[in-house]
Every structure is written in C-alpha cells, then in structure tokens.
Fold this sequence. Notes:
By secondary structure, the chain is of the alpha/beta class. The chain has two domains: 3-91 and 170-282, TIM Barrel, CATH 3.20.20.140; 98-157, DNA polymerase, domain 1, CATH 1.10.150. It has helices spanning 18-27, 44-54, 85-111, 118-125, 133-143, 149-157, 172-181, 202-210, 225-238, 265-282, and strands at 3-7, 32-38, 57-68, 71-78, 170-171, 185-188, 215-219, 241-244. Helix 8 packs parallel to helix 9 (225-238).
Amino acid sequence: MRIDLHAHSSVSDGTQRPAELVRAAAASGLDVLAITDHDTTDSWDEAARAAREVGLTLVRGIEISTVHRGRGVHLLAYLPDPTHPALHSRLLAVLAGRASRVPAILERLSALGVDLTEEEVASASGRTAATGRPHLADALVTKGVVRDRREAFDRFLNPGRPAYVDRTAADLVDMITVVADAGGVSVLAHPWGRSARQVLDAATLGELRALGLTGIEVDHEDHPRPVRHELRAVARHHDLVVTGSSDHHGLGKVGHELGCNTTDPHEYERLLAAAEEAAARSGRAVPDLVVA
Length: 292
C-alpha cells in the first residue's frame, strides 16, 4: 500500500484542481492520499467525489499556518470537524491575514519598481480563499518579471528579501488543542526543514506530544537522510506517529512528485486509530475516510 499524506491543490497553492490531483495520485500508483490545502477545507468535496470515481482512499486534511516562539510552523490536521467553532474561526483569521498580506507585499514590490496589481494576483490564484506568496510569484512570472516561482522567492518573497512581509498565523499549542477538540489529529509538517527546527528541538517535540500532538512528518524532501534518522529516533522516544509525504504542489514545486515519500502502512493505521479516539472524545461528527 502506497500512502501520501500531504498534497496541495489549486484551492491553495497547488496547480491542479482537487479532482485533477486525485486522478494524478491514482495514476501514480498511490492507494491513499491526504489533501491538505493551506488553511482551508474548500477542496474536500471535489476531491472526495473524484476519489470515489477512481477508487482512491482520501484522507481529508488541512495544513494550518501556525507560529511557535516567533517562528512559522506548519501543522497538518487530519479528519477534524470543519464546522467546529474554534477551528472555523481560527482558520478564518489566518485567511484574513493572508488577504491583508497581499497588498502589503504589493506595496513593497512597487517601491522596488515592480508594478503588480491585486487583480493580477487574483487572476494567478484562481481567486482561491488561501492566497499566498506562491500566487504572487505566479503573477510575477506571468508579468515577465521573473522566470519561475523559485526566482520570485529568491529575489523578492523569501524571508530577508525586500518584498517579504510576515503573516498572521495561529498559535501552535492552541491549534493542537483545537484540532483535538474538533475530533482530529495533528502532525507537524517538515519540522526540521527550513527554520522550524530552531524552535522544535527534541525536548519541545516531547512537550508538544504531551499537549496532544499525534505525529511528525519525517520523510520529506526538506529532510536529508541524517535528519530523517534523527527524527525517527525522537519519534520512537516520544511515541509519535511517523509520516512520509510528497508535499506535492503540481507544477508549483519542483522535486515533490506524488509518492516521492510515503507513509508506512503501520504508521498510517496508528494515525487512524488516534483519529478514531479523538473523534470519540470530541463527540463531534467528523468526516469519514473516502475508502477505496
């Protein structure tokens, strides 16, 4: 069984519609896919319909933008009730922060002599609810300012670059609790990739486990082999579920093809068991798996 628990559609910053993503996952030989768009569940229904058509097991998820000790951390939430009031309100706040970030970045780009409009960004994003820096990058590509997303980030949009603007994000510890209250389970996405490792050392991962964190994404393209080995040892020590994923974005992220990293079936079963327990504790109507 081949299981990929982290992928994005054009509802956030991927380049494939949810149904296209699901069909591509099935064509690539995956048996299970989690759709985890940034800060929104808007892709779930379309993806579920496609999964039933092609015979793929679909796990409904979200990649939530959070912050911990001043650093951005991405939290994967699986199978929460999207109508849970606290979860719903926090996601709306993050999405509002995304929307307000766009004009701030455009203002910085303008000061650099790059004239880009909100309409051009909306066109590049397909008017998704979860507008982000990748859509600004796509608009810069369309405008001919840069060759591709990578150049846009390297020149303008990465932290420390001249057009970067920090974003609104939920508190990590609070969000772990909220996801559990909504009947879901949480996994830290690429915890030792990018800058997150500075605030997610082994001791902190243990503390988060005690607060309700279910697992960590170990097998990810941001993690070199030695880092994966270290993280597995941390996961064993703290009894955390270990996942592996592509973090696929279609054409929007090079080197993250569907199934390039996968989750061991035993770990997947552990994750589902934890989700069943969380659902029972919450007493809420959480979404079922779409089972092939």
